[in-house]
Amino acid sequence: MAFNPSGRSVAFGVIDQDALAGPDRFTIWDVPTRRVIQVLDLSRTFPPPSSRRIPAPAPNAIAFSTDSTSLLVSRDPSPERLEYWSLRHGTRDKVLTGIGGEVLATGTDRRVLATSHGQLQDIESDHVTRKALTVGETTALAFSADGKYLAAGDASGQVTIWDGDGRRRLGQLIPAGAGGTDHVPRGIRALAFAPDSRTLAVTSKDGMLRLWDVASSQQLGSGLPAPGGTDLAVAFSADGNTLQVAGEHVPLRTYRIAPEHIAEAVCKRIKDQASPLLSKTDWAAYGVGAPYRTPC
Questions:
Q1: What is the C-alpha separation between 127 and 186, in angstroms, rounded?
Q2: Phi/psi at 184 (nearest 5 deg)?
Q3: In the chain, fewer beta carbons within 10 Å around the N or the C end?
Q4: pLDDT, tens digit, for every residue of 82-131?
């Protein structure tokens, strides 16, 4: 499954990895209207000039091109390759070999495609550069909306922040216990940048949702536990004030994360308490340095 850069279209398919022949069918949905706008049947035959008769492997990852005109399809293994399928004509327009992965990510600035196999494709020239994006096995990738950052999560629970071209490492997000020996699975499952690129939401196999400040590489607050198992996908609203999370066994959850919303929620919880959140004695003890007033 993959959303296009605008979030208005989603491609979805159920692939039988054991089937020897295709086609593999993907359905393109219009998200606002919830209507099917296209059905794309992907052939498993090797394109010309290949004379191979054995069907190609089933797709193992998909992504929209940055201009949303093509569906990018990774096939792996033997041989590793990336196919460009035209959404206008339903045809396979281009095939690149030596690139692919279980996770694909494209930036909105049309410069780079990143794969979980440590490959960076220059969109204009199709040149592929190999680079280890994470400490361990890469399990999640995401570009910021402004193309400034690339985040790469790995199986140990760590996230590495790169510049938008994947050339320079800018920071590393390491939650408590990541890479430890307590046998708690912490592999990263999903990543999403806020619209302003300042905050990164991270879900992991330990069932926690964490928010990070990208510039300082510091975690914001404590993690939020997933009530129904591992979180599989995460996304910010367009204004960055809410966060939507999809889990294994529960409906879509929405968190209000804007500071004013958080303050409102805290005050609502304590307004019926017999004593104020911060007494006059505490106010004086902590040296606030201003006339006393109730916090809420």
A1: 33
A2: -85, 120
A3: N
A4: 999 999 998 889 989 889 999 999 877 668 899 999 999 998 899 999 99
